[in-house]
Amino acid sequence: MNILVTGASRGIGKVIATELQSLGKVFVTARTENDLQVFGIGNYCVADLADEVELTKVGNFIEENEIDVLINNAGAYHYSGIEETEMYRLNHMLAVNLKAPIYLIHRAVPHMKRNNFGRIINIGSISGVMGEANASIYSATKAGLIGLAKATGLELAAYGITVNTINPGWVDTELGKFSIEKSEFSEDEIIETIPQKRFVKPEEIASLAKYLISDNAKGITGQSINICAGLSVGI
């Protein structure tokens, strides 16, 4: 089984890529080569998914390595009011969070169809489920992944391909800490809004991804699965 994880240089992506090595050959992509070298020469593709030329390079990489499992994890986050939205920021967020997953699925599906097997997992966000004030672009792009999984899950179901979206809440990663710094709330204030009073560990997300890849999860497709310590249920 050949697996590709995008945004695998750190955080959730790195943990997922490490966890999935027991399932097959893991390939990774991110912007910084130094952070990918641990996965071995030939197993990584250095690319900025916001750049169309480099995105196409990752598409070629997918075809060359006959990827059976695609984990669209790479993402960008920005915290600001809707009236402060700048065009370059809008284009960047749409490119990384939504355009890139759509394009990479497009490149991965032909091989999956030929094998009558494939697993596609998009890493969304609870912000795409509930909405997050002052993170409208981020919320919109992550909500788009939910719709993408529903549509492609339906389209590809007859070919043994499943497509699902995992929506993490607050996660104990560098990006999670960065998000706190950019918000108007302290870490303690945020934890108070989470029913389990804790951040989700990236290992929990990796374990869920591993299950969704397994044969036991072949009946799960087009779904949006929240792993948020109860955040989506209510306060």
The neighbouring-strand order within the major sheet is: 3-2-1-4-5-6-7
Computed Rg: 17 Å
Mean pLDDT: 93
In which range does the helix fraction lie? 40-55%
Which of globular, elongated, flat, extended, rod-shaped describes the shape?
globular
Strand residue percentage: 15-25%
Helix- and strand-based class?
A: alpha/beta
Tell me the number of strands.
7
| C-alpha end-to-end distance | 41 Å
- What is the count of DSSP helices, taking H or I runs of 4+ residues? 8
Largest sheet: 7 strands, parallel
Regions with little confidence, pLDDT below 50 for 5+ residues = none
Would you list the SSEs in sequence order as H and E? EHEEHEHEHHEHHHE
Structure description:
The protein is α/β, with parallel strands linked by helices and about 240 residues long. It is about 45% helix and about 15% strand. Strands 3-2-1-4-5-6-7 form a seven-stranded parallel β-sheet, sandwiched between helices. Helix 2 runs parallel beside helix 3 and helix 3 (about 85-115) runs parallel beside helix 5 (about 135-155).
List the SSEs and their pairings:
Blueprint: E1 2-6, H1 11-19, E2 25-30, E3 44-46, H2 52-64, E4 69-72, H3 87-115, E5 118-123, H4 126-130, H5 136-156, E6 161-168, H6 174-182, H7 187-192, H8 202-213, E7 224-227
Parallel strand pairs: 1-2, 1-4, 2-3, 4-5, 5-6, 6-7
Quick overview of this protein structure:
The protein contains eight helices and seven strands.
List keywords for this structure.
235 residues; alpha/beta; 44% helix
